Amino acid sequence: MNEDTLQPPGMRHPSSSSVEPAGGWRRDVAWLTLALALFFGLALGARALWRPDEGRYVEIPREMVATGDWVTPRLNGVKYFEKPPLFYWLEAGAIHLFGLREWAMRLVPALFALLGCLAVYGAGRRLFGRRAGLLAAAVLATSPLYYFLGNAITLDMAVSVLLTVGLLALLVALEEPEGPLRRNLLWGFYLALALATLTKGLIGIVIPGMIVVAWMMLVGAWDLPRRIRLVSGTVLFLLVAVPWHVLVARANPEFLWFYFVHEHVLRYLTKVHGRYEPPWFFVPVLLGGLIPWTAFLVPALRSALPASWRDRRQRKVELFLILWAALIFGFFSLSDSKLIPYVLPVAPPLALLLGRHLAAVWEGRRNRELRIACSVLLALAGGLGLGLALAPRLVSGPPKVVHYLSILDGDVYLLAGSLLLLGIVPFLFALRHRPDRSLAAAFGGISLFLLALVAGSAAFNAERSSRALALWLKPRLRPEDQVVTYRTYVQELPVYLERRITVAGWLGELEMGVRAEDTSDWMIGLDAFERLWRAPGTVYLFAEEGRFQKLAETGLPLYRLAKGGKIVLAVNHPPLTLPAVSTPPRLTSPPVPP
After folding, report:
1. Bridge-partner residues for 503, per DSSP?
2. Is the pLDDT of residue 164 over 90?
3. Which of 305, 322, 452, 578 has its CA 20 to 30 A from that of 504?
4. Dihedral of the CA atoms 538, 544, 546, 551 (nearest 10)?
5. How far apart are CA 30 and CA 24, in angstroms?
């Protein structure tokens, strides 16, 4: 009989690392790595770089490679201190290895997503058993929020996985006896926190510190500081995290105030970034981001809680995971600056708790809970699928919904079909008392839906990216020509053109860098833009359609060349004088001719 079936959920396997054959771990890791690499890697190049984040977080490392300055991050040639450099360095490494390709740029977050799943598997297997570890990894990989951010070029997946690796290393170390393994896990905890700090700032130490202190107080683990190699670990953390901060501060006097005060304190406590959302903002984000596993979340949390206050020390691991999820969720819910990816670090601890619960479900010890959860899933996924299948018949409705449905076209039915399968098939197997097949069907249904959605996302390239316009323009550009964005900054444009652009009448997130040094050659005002436009040289303009129309009403000579999504491309002289291109580039989403 399998060892997992002998112990009720929540019972840990304190000796599993010593009694289980190493070959079993290696075999699981090898198969998981292969499956996850395919799952996260199949659609890496399916779409263009979407604004704003993907363009920004590729352009900064592109400029590092071009200039050789690895200390001071720059965006369009302007100092940019909103984030530390680790993610930029990794993206720059991908550029060195594979060139400036979309799939290569998404390889970094995809590898972090894979690493996070492997970390969850390893910790889940050590703490709750093999089946729980495998299911936890699968839950995390197939959670929509996690999967989509593993396919997006942002810092959030990297920092979330580094926090996960660090906190799980600590949690597993506390379950291990004294020895080299425990020591290395604890040093891994400090190293991961240092790397998280180098990825997204002080949350790399604030969030883990908040969780560990709260857990220590809750379970009465007052001897924890002397058990976690605090002195040597702190030295390791400082050796990794501090040098870049010292170097960049010495080179840039404005760094310290902007980075620590403006980007940490004021970002959290004020609306300075214009990203305010109500305190309940992350509730639907988290519930939707965990579908279909949202249906199992309540029983998973209930089974993890201790029966009474006196029993809390018997559920130390479960309470650590619950605190991890709850404190991060509360921390960002109270902030005055909110974006959807901020809640991503909540997913790994919830995946572990779900994996622990689903292991019992798989073994047939939670049949009633399975039927209830599958009924909820049928209502959620089945309702969404049915609504999506009928949606193309709508002749009226919210303009954005109708517009997006027209873009998806036939992909709507593939997405609707996968949602219907996700709702119906697990429910039918649950009715027949086949929990293993019911869960397998849920994993298969959500995987099909996620892959179909990411593959179909290329249909939105014209809406979210100027790649088509940039590729159309790039072979026509001469070194002396100017490219200007008017009253906006199109983040992905410098990446595709592989050159700095001129920005007219806009500062936005570049305001600090513009004030820190002279950038007047390419960060210009509207008067300077008009003089440039009327000059003899060739100037290309990228502008949002509404602003382009208003600019045309001023009488400025504008020769419209093409339109992609909401962005219009124009030139300041009649297009007949432009150099010809013998073979136009192949465009995934061609610009609309005037």
Report:
1. 485, 523
2. yes
3. 578
4. -20
5. 10
The confidence band for 416, taking pLDDT boundaries of 50, 70 and 90, is: confident
Write the DSSP assignment of 461-500 as a string of letters. Answer: HHHH--HHHHHHHGGG--TT-EEEEESS--TTHHHHHTS-
Q: Which of 164, 222, 152, 218 lies closest to 196, judged by CA?
A: 164
| CA atoms of 587 and 375, how far apart (whole Å) | 45
Residue type, 81: F
Tokens of 494: 């410098």
Q: 523-524 and 539-544 as β-strands: parallel, antiparallel, unpaired?
A: unpaired
Q: Is 258 helix (H, G, I), strand (E, B) or coil?
A: helix
Please answer whether residues 297 and 3 qualify as being in contact, where contact means their C-beta atoms are separated by less than 8 angstroms. no
161 vs 115, 144, 217, 444, 562, CA distance in Å?
A: 7, 16, 25, 24, 41
CB atoms within 10 A of CB 213: 14
Phi, psi torsion values for 569, nearest 5 degrees: -110, 130
Residue 133's Cβ-side half-sphere holds a number of Cα atoms within 13 Å equal to: 24
- Distances in whole angstroms, Cα of residue 343 to Cα of each of 146, 243, 325, 329, 591: 10, 29, 9, 6, 36
Question: Could you read off the pLDDT of 345-386 as tens digits, one per residue?
Answer: 999 999 999 999 999 999 888 888 999 999 999 999 888 888
Burial (CB count within 10 angstroms: exposed 0-12, middle 13-18, buried 19+), residue 334: exposed
Condensed to tens digits (0 to 9), the pLDDT of residues 286-300 reads 999 999 999 999 999
- For the record, the structure tokens of 173 come out as 């170390």
486: left (phi over 0), alpha (psi -120 to 50) or beta: beta
